[in-house]
Amino acid sequence: MIPRAIPITANDPAFPPYEVLVGSGLLSDLGPTLANTLGADRRAFLIYDRDLPQEHVAEASRSLAHHGYAVSSAFGVATETEKTLDSAERLLEEVAITRHERRDPIVALGGGIVGDLAGFVAATYRRGVPVVQCPTTLLAMVDASVGGKTGVNLATERGLLKNFVGAFHQPALVVADVKTLATLSDRQFCAGLAECVKHALLSADCGDADLLAWMASTMPRFLARESEALTDLVARNVAVKARVVRDDPREERATSDGSGLSRMLLNLGHTFAHAFETLPGVAPLDRASDTPLLHGEAVALGLVAACAAGEHLGMTDPETTRLALAALTAAGLPTRAINLPPSEDLAARMMHDKKVAQGKLRLIVPTGPGRCTIIPDAPHEAAIAGLDAIRA
Q1: Which of the following is catalytic: 67, 100, 243, 274?
Q2: How many angstroms separate the CA atoms of 276 and 281, rounded?
């Protein structure tokens, strides 16, 4: 299969363009692909997910080594509690030992957590070296690997604050090999579909108004892990994100209007999700309470909450909510959670969100098929309505 290539550009000269390659079997050609983009005869430092099947790590390493790269590697742990400054420091030391130079790439192989961590290491080592993102989860392919956000969590007395330390550091290249999705558990795979539903809820302004309907009709093929369908799914979702990132690469626009889109739209559902996804005991309604909530599951719950908040404000019609719930349910994602703290406590946690400005909570809510808007000063009651809607 010839890989799909989606160009990523930005209206900012500080962000050079790059490509996202999507297809099956791309890891076996990682070496020549990087050599064509960055040049060969360099060091490459591979940061991989410790729990990734060894076949993926070996395939990437072998391809790099066969095409002129001196390969070193270290693992990252794909949990929110290990996505920290301590982990970044350990990896920075590992990279420094190899005498990695500023032209040498760091290659991130794994899901969103490892990609964020490796990207942060690349952004800070010698003030920045190239990073090549090789996402191996659906969530990372359609979202985390694209757009240049890197970072780690910050442990505070208020709890773990998501992605509070980080930098914008665009990748030199993204290589999404959908063959790796075959080794994901069903739960991990479905978690990635949450970001796809999110993109579909805002896709009309990005030139793909029928994305949600297409996903609904094609869902059985996604769940069967059909390679061609997955390639199309990843490519269409990346194109949606690319359209937003082009207009607002640093998430500096407060609104979306005729002059461009705000990157804050991509946080649809996330302000809610970040308030509870790292809390112990919170879990999907149909699973044991000691099972940690996955990021995609938290986003799915956050999308439900965003729809409920929009309905409370009179901005989201019930049909949009129905379509969102149907898509999430068809994707095997939760719409209710157990062991949530009181909604007032969660609303207070939402005020620590990075998008809060001058003490005002920003929420993104759907306003129609494939369209969303930013509420710059969301009423407290809307946040409560959203949180109450996901309570089992």
Answers
A1: 274
A2: 10
